[in-house]
Structures are given as structure tokens and as C-alpha cells.
Design a protein that fits this description.
single chain, mainly beta, Porin, 17-stranded antiparallel beta sheet, 7% helix, globular
């Protein structure tokens, strides 16, 4: 599944340095990503994210350079393309919210309850399906439940439940529990292990908030560790704590443009760059 959905490593960005471990039991599968969107103050954002490029290590510890380019019609994102040439197309509903993202091998459908995103269902041809459901409290994301059903190499079904805490417009803490469905009985068997992630932020503008909010929520449904994608500012320090392991701490250094959006985010010898 990771090979089919590799482009989401770029969209998730440097955050995977702290949270993606090839042996981890947590939400380690990443799927493959604007039109103007209002800020928290209601002001229209006309700045557009045109391209992201990354220099990141893969699971084998080797560097890979990747890119993703966005195509628009006016202020609306129509499609995006990765550096392999794969194209992903977006459809919108009557409320101008994303209803579908699709490519030759993958389709993601979006369902809403009123104006809130309720569910995303992503089907990967020949590989499996990921279903994520969302809950909100006082307008903020409070919980995501993700069920991952894999058909290769053998049928397996995993469960992830993540709760979130906010301070203002920034997601500051998340806690993930996980389990697996018994292949014989079908019963959910929860693990005693948990993963918590905490964030501190700068005071500058996040490039991900230039993307539609339902798209950022979709990413969180796929990889709950990336809950900061719905935040207004940029993570400066990320602390990942897993049961039985010492906390991992990742520090970011950001370079900004004249409008206080990051043009480059660096963690050690890895980075992701943003073009507007």
C-alpha cells in the first residue's frame, strides 16, 4: 500500500521523520494531494500553494527527492501531479467542498454531515480500503476513527482511534489507541500500547491552511500523527511518545517569505520546500 500511495509522504512532509517507523504498529500507511479558503478570521486567502518538493529518507534510510505540482482553475484546485507523472483529479459538491479525489489506481470519497466532514472512504485497487470517521467539538476536530482493511499480502483489518486537543487554532496534543480485528472471529482486539504526539508552534502562517480544510482532515484520517495539518501555525517542536519507548523529539527550522509563509522547513539533513 505504501508504494501505491507514496506521494503522501510529500504532503505529510517532514513530520514523518518523527512518526514513521517501518516497524511501528500505529497509523503508518500513507495515501496519495487549492482553491481559496477562508482563514479563521473569515478573510479570503488568495495565495496558492503551487508546488512542494522534498528531500526525505525512506524506510530503508536512503534519501529520495520527490515533488508534487498543483493545477488550478481560478482559485479552485482541479488536479495535482507527482514527479512520476501520476495525476489525481478533484471533484466538488454543490457546497464547493471536495467530494472525490481519484486517479487510475485510487479513489477517495468524502461524505458530510451538514457542513462537517463525516467520513472518507479510500479504495486502492488490488490493495485494500481505508475508512475514516470524524467527530467535532465546538467546531474543532475531537476524534478520528480509522479502519484499514488490507487485501495484500494477506487480508488484515486494523483499527486506530485518535483524540485531539486544541489551544486556539492549533492542535497541540493527540493520543492514538490501536487494535486489530481477529481474522477468525472478526472481533476487535485492542492493544495496550498507545502513541501520544505533542506540538509547539511558531506565530507564522501554515501553508497547509491554504489547502481546503476537508482535505487536511482527510490527511489526518489517513495518518493521525499529522493532526497539526489543521493548525493555523507551523510546528517548531514535535514530541512523539510510544508505550515502552523513550520520547522522540524533532525540532524544525523554518525559512519564511515576506508574507510569513514558510518556503522551507528543515529538520537535520532532511527538508521540504514550498512554492507559491
Amino acid at each position: 500500500m505504501k508504494k501505491l500511495l507514496h506521494i503522501f509522504y510529500i504532503i505529510l512532509g517532514i513530520f514523518v521523520l518523527a512518526s514513521c517507523d517501518p516497524d511501528q504498529d500505529f497509523n503508518g500507511d500513507y495515501l496519495i494531494g487549492v482553491h481559496y479558503t477562508p482563514t479563521s478570521t473569515g478573510t479570503a486567502v488568495t495565495k496558492q500553494l503551487k508546488q512542494m518538493t522534498s528531500h526525505l529518507k525512506n524506510d530503508a534510510g536512503q534519501f529520495e527527492d520527490q515533488s508534487i505540482t498543483y493545477s488550478y482553475s481560478g482559485s479552485k484546485l482541479l488536479s495535482f501531479k507527482d514527479n512520476s507523472g501520476a495525476v489525481y483529479t478533484l471533484s466538488y459538491n454543490n457546497a464547493n467542498k471536495i467530494s472525490k479525489i481519484y486517479s487510475a489506481l485510487q479513489t477517495s470519497d468524502f461524505e458530510y454531515s451538514g457542513t462537517d466532514l463525516y467520513k472518507t472512504i479510500t479504495t486502492i485497487s488490488g490493495a485494500g480500503k481505508i475508512t475514516s470517521t470524524y467527530s467535532f467539538s465546538a467546531g474543532k476536530l475531537s476524534k478520528v476513527i480509522s479502519v484499514q482493511e488490507l487485501s495484500i499480502p494477506i487480508p488484515l483489518k486494523y483499527y486506530y482511534e485518535t483524540t485531539f486537543e486544541f489551544q486556539g487554532e492549533n492542535m497541540t496534543n493527540s493520543l492514538t489507541k490501536n487494535g486489530v480485528y481477529n481474522p477468525l472471529s472478526g472481533n476487535l482486539e485492542m492493544s495496550a500500547d498507545t502513541q501520544s504526539v505533542s506540538f509547539t508552534y511558531d506565530s507564522k502562517s501554515s501553508p497547509y491552511r491554504l489547502l481546503p480544510m476537508e482535505y487536511n482532515l482527510f490527511l489526518v484520517g489517513i495518518a493521525s500523527q499529522a493532526g497539526n495539518f489543521v493548525s493555523a501555525n507551523n510546528a517548531e517542536k514535535v514530541t512523539v511518545s510510544k508505550t515502552g519507548s523513550a520520547p522522540q523529539i524533532l525540532t524544525f527550522v523554518h525559512t519564511y517569505d515576506t508574507e510569513n509563509y514558510p518556503t522551507k522547513s528543515t529538520a537535520g539533513d532532511q527538508h521540504i520546500a514550498f512554492q507559491y
